[in-house]
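Whiteboard transcription, Tuesday session. T.W. wrote the C-alpha cells on the left side:
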C-alpha cells in the first residue's frame, strides 16, 4: 500500500499570490477565512445543540408544570382521604337507617307492634307496591287505626323512634264513637338499592 505524502508544495503558488497582495487584502482574506471557520463551527456544532437545548428547555418546563400539578394534588390527598372516610361513615350510618329486603317483614311487625303498644286497634294494615327511586325504594303501607287521640300520638311517636326510617304521610283523622278517632295514613319505609356496576 502506498503512503500518501502530504506536502505544502501544491499550495506554494497560492501562498505566493497571497504574499504579493497588500497588507489590507491579506488581513481581509485571513479575517474572511476565520469567519468562515467560525461560521462552520457555529452552524455544525453549536446550532444543533442550541436547538436541542430549546427542545429540552420546553420539555423541562412542561414536566415542571406537571410536577407542580402533581404536588398540588398530592398535598390535597390526605384531606380528600379524610373527607372520603367521613362520607363513607355517613353513608354507612344512613345505610343502617334503610332496611335491607330481609328486614322489611320485621320492620312492618315493629310498626304494627307500636300501634298495639299504644293501645290502638288496627282496622287496616296493608303493604303496597314498591316505588323505585334513584338509589332507594319506597315501601308504602296503608294504615287505618282506631283509638284515642293520645294513643294515636303515642303511636306516631313510637314509629318515629324506630331505628329505621319510617315516614307517616297523608294523615286523615275523623271522629269515631266514644271519643275515639279513626286515623288513616300511609307509613312509608325505605330500602337501600345497590347501584349496578358500582
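and on the right, the sequence the group agreed on:
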Amino acid at each position: 500500500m502506498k503512503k500518501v505524502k502530504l506536502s505544502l508544495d501544491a499550495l506554494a503558488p497560492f501562498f505566493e499570490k497571497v504574499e504579493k497582495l497588500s497588507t489590507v487584502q491579506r488581513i481581509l482574506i485571513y479575517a474572511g477565512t476565520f469567519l468562515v471557520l467560525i461560521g462552520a463551527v457555529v452552524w455544525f456544532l453549536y446550532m444543533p445543540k442550541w436547538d436541542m437545548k430549546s427542545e429540552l428547555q420546553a420539555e423541562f418546563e412542561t414536566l415542571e408544570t406537571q410536577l407542580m400539578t402533581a404536588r398540588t394534588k398530592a398535598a390535597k390527598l390526605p384531606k380528600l382521604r379524610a373527607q372520603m372516610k367521613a362520607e363513607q361513615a355517613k353513608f354507612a350510618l344512613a345505610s343502617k337507617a334503610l332496611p335491607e329486603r330481609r328486614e322489611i317483614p320485621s320492620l312492618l311487625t315493629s310498626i304494627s307492634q307500636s300501634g298495639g303498644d299504644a293501645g290502638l286497634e288496627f282496622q287496616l294494615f296493608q303493604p303496597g307496591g314498591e316505588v323505585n327511586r334513584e338509589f332507594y325504594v319506597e315501601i308504602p303501607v296503608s294504615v287505618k287505626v282506631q283509638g284515642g287521640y293520645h294513643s294515636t300520638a303515642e303511636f306516631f311517636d313510637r314509629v318515629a323512634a324506630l331505628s329505621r326510617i319510617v315516614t307517616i304521610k297523608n294523615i286523615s283523622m275523623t271522629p269515631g264513637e266514644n271519643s275515639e278517632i279513626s286515623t288513616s295514613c300511609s307509613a312509608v319505609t325505605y330500602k337501600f338499592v345497590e347501584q349496578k356496576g358500582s
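Someone added at the bottom: The CA atoms of residues 101 and 144 lie 24 Å apart.
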